[in-house]
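ok trying again, last paste got cut off:
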Amino acid sequence: MHSEVRQDFPGVCPKCGMTLEPVIPELEQEDNTELVTFSQRFWWTLPLTMIVTTLAMFGHQLNLMDAITQTWIEFILSLPIVLWAGWPFLYRGALSIINRSPNMWTLIGLGTAAAFIYSTIATIIPEVFPSSFYSMGRVSVYFEAASVIISLTLLGQMLELKARSQTSAAIKSLLGLSPKTAKKINADGTEHEVDLSHVHVGDMLRVRPGEKVPVDGMVLSGSSSIDESMLTGEPMPISKHVGDKVIGATLNTSGTLVIRSERVGAETMLSQIVQMVAQAQRSKAPMQRLADIVAGYFVAMVVCISLATLLVWGLLGPEPSWVYGLINAVAVLIIACPCALGLATPMSIMVATGRGATSGVLFRDAAAIENMRKVTTLIVDKTGTLTEGKPRFNLALPIDGYSAEKVLLYAASLDQGSEHPLADAIVAEARRQSLTLLTLEDFESGSGIGVKGKINGQSVALGNTALMQMLGVETSALTSNSEALRLEGASVMYLAIDLQLAGLIAVSDPIKPSTVEALTALKKSGIRVVMATGDGITTAKSVANKLGIKEFYGEVRPEDKLKLVTSLQLEGQVVAMAGDGINDAPALAKADVGIAMGTGTDVAMNSAQITLVKGDLRGINEARSLSESTINNMKQNLLFAFLYNALGVPLAAGLLYPFTGWLLSPMIAALAMSLSSASVIANALRLKQF
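nice, full thing came through this time. structure:
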């Protein structure tokens, strides 16, 4: 429950007393060691608990033995229950006191120890107790209370551990997607099967129909349809051809492919998804931090209420008053265990992050889940976010003195150092025309408005109007041409050689088929949508008009996007930023919720709190709905935990006794405590059906 507690060996958390779990669950390790241990302790001692309870409740009626002998038999049978089966609880309770971190085990340990130690003293040296403690020929003992509390707590922990194991099912299912071997093609054309750990970057691999793609890579030959639903949530198989990227662990459904591995091991998308989900499950939501603080004070308050119950009953209650006081004090300690409170938010977060991962929505931390539902304004980048991010080359238009081929050659040679999708389209067209790219030196990027460098000793720049103005390059010779292209929705980039205009490049990036549907749903949800792009104003306006976006900004640089986020936040807006490029990273980091496209750059994904694996804006609506459902689920759990204690503690303390004659047995309190934890987890698991 405390994500900041980390160590390199198994053990118990010094703060909450829960067993520490692996950072990444191990697929092969199916058995839960703690569950096995608790199950053994429960089943081996359950017969003893049943005998002790039967003797305590019916022994005097059966007249099988005298009262003193019965007491000693209950004591002997209770020893293994309390000292062996209950040892983990007593140890954790002592640890919480030593570490000054009161938690549920503090109350269980105190309650069990109080009942058992009192009963042990009453068995060994009964003469120290006054006559008011005697009943039916012996000092009243409560070995059955201590035994039943241990057995029911073990049962509750078993139910809890089984349910908690389901919360990591999403990670285990992701781990299970990865194939164990790959078919490696050797330099001489032969191939053999190798373990996945022996695949390296640059290896050629063959993927036959029905096989899983072993690692992230690029198609070298062949064509097929790949089922990526297990990672992206995309229901339809995606056609793959030469030059296309493939994702490890996805399923090849038809043709044979030869791929070149590009990312292996921890660098694959699958591994990064697993790491992100695990990180999110370990993080704390702001709501949980408040619950932790409340729980700490709550335990101290319960101990005080328990002591007050003992004293009030002992001094003012009916005979045997101190026996009543002790039993009611133990009942208060047990029923008030804040286990349900401690589990209320972590269980919801764990289930929600796993559910999101199976839909292609990755939350970096719990705060992102909590904040997503509050978003009022969404800023979206254009290229790769609203559009497919797979631009198509339109034309190269030179001015007098240059040829279209030279303009394309210089632009492609400069763009070979860029990560931008527009650059990929230009470089791909140059290679399609069999142009040999020139050597690039002193490459500069990151401005968000273009790139610069040196080719054959000449300074070359490629970018939008803002970059040309910054460099003092006159573009009026091609203004009319560029405006006409932009009206058609094309992105226009000017090429300058030695600070003189050489021509322009036009590239078109089709709007994603799902974008209109996603924006319509966002607007219905009351989200204000703003588009900010590095493209020219005319291109931005053309795309905005097609999508019905009223607020848009063109020719914006990274610092402009950052300022836009800041200005909207100053207006009181809760801002989400969706983008996919390096130039979006500052705004993604500054926004209340940064949303990166999984099809974009690593820098963008590292700067964002949410990643949409398939780069589909409809995932924002899914993330928002899941956020709302998760927060509602957390509130339900917290409300249940607080109501449970608000009703249970007064009943256990005996406040209703003068009016109804009702008292709550510690055994019933233990059962209620266990069931409360199980019900909280069961409610959290409902999110799996989101």
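cool. Residues 334 and 389 are 59 Å apart (CA to CA). The radius of gyration is 34 Å.
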